[in-house]
Design goal:
The structure is a single chain. The protein is an alpha/beta fold and 475 residues long. Helix content is 28%, strand content 23%. It has helices at residues 44-51, 60-80, 97-105, 115-123, 140-149, 159-172, 210-218, 240-256, 284-302, 315-318, 356-360, 450-455; strands at residues 29-31, 37-39, 42-43, 55-59, 85-90, 109-112, 131-133, 153-156, 176-183, 205-206, 223-229, 264-266, 308-311, 322-336, 340-347, 366-368, 377-383, 392-400, 408-411, 433-437, 440-445.
Length: 475
Amino acid sequence: MISNPLAPSWLAPPRDANALAASVWSQNSVRAASGVLEIAGVSAVEIAERFGTPVYAVDEADVRERARAAHDCFSREFARIGSSAKVYYAGKAFLCTELARWVAEAGLNIDVCSGGELAVALAAGIAPARLGFHGNNKSLAEIDRAVSVGVGVLVIDSIVEIGRIAEAAARHGVVQPVRLRVNSGVHAHTHEYLATAREDQKFGIALSDAADAVAAIRAQPAIEFLGLHSHIGSQIFGTDGFAEAAARLLELHAELLRGGPIPELNLGGGFGIAYTSVDVALPLEEIAAGLADIVAGECARLGIPVPVVAVEPGRSIVGPSTSTLYTVGTIKDVLVEGTATRKYVSVDGGMSDNVRPALYAADYSVRIASRASTADPALVRIAGKHCESGDIVVHADYLPGDVQPGDVVAVAATGAYCWSLASNYNYLGRPPVIAVRDGVARVIVRGETEADLLARDAGISPGSVAAQPQEEETR
């Protein structure tokens, strides 16, 4: 088939527009003999009928396996070099009580960055000592609560937080462990908005100021300094950036060892995943082995002990696990500059459930989920229903040319930063999140109804809004 000239250069027409790229879809997503997409033994048609669309469908076994594998491979590789690893699941990717329990059962700690995320982790029954808390503007109330419940580590992001944490710890009669977030100056190979280790940005403090900050931390008897913390960006496909960041951090680490023990070093997360068939993401096993070799080599060069190394994967744990299901509403064939046709396929969700394409120009993959088709592939753009021209869910992919209203389509790899960034734009309720495992689907986050949205409107008299039915929770 000849490629549509409107397609991006990386996107080639597929031989089979029904095929599911194994690197993109969850481990238990398959196309059944009937042609219907099945997720962990439940058909997409059944999911759409029971829970409505849009709906986030999480392959529970996929999440659990990725979390277990992350724990095991980092533990194994750092034991190989005579140390150990702490793996924190980055809750900002997606967090609810059920998922918090899954990753904790797999051996992971959890990283939170707000009072709300802390509340979810605590409600899930996660031991506070297994939590890390970071953020560039933690409120006094958030700091006080974190210290009072016994959060395992607070990440200091600015000089002013040193005194605030010390005061809270003294007030509660505890010694609070902390890390110091520093800007390594390493520019990760990622989208400009996702790079978080540059000097001119809101996170952390400059590497050149870190020694003075650590001295101030060590001067506070109510604070225990665990080590440095770095995060160089998100959706990173290699280890070069981590190697450079580790080298710079360990140089400082070695210098700071003269003033006292430093048991840990946190290298952050940001490990990339495949959103399209051309994305090549390193397996976590290779990342773990590479980071262990990098740290071991630098420590040997500097003549210092290998610290405990912490990492914070989030997207790589939950991102590939989830597909968002939509129902097609309208279809338009648009002739662009008189040369080629782009097929606009509009669905019943959009930027309210996945803002990443509008925010980052992120690419996604889409397939018809309710049937298979032998029609020739056609270039499509999956559009949302919001009143924004930039409301695009999938900028470019190929679907069978006979895609039609009423089809259920699935967009892959929506587990990270889709529900977390969801909104009520145009007064759409945020979709439910369902977990699917061994042929059983259940709600783990309820979808919002119109009654839920109107209940917050202070201009409506109590009891005047008719209750709307909630989604089915059990099967």
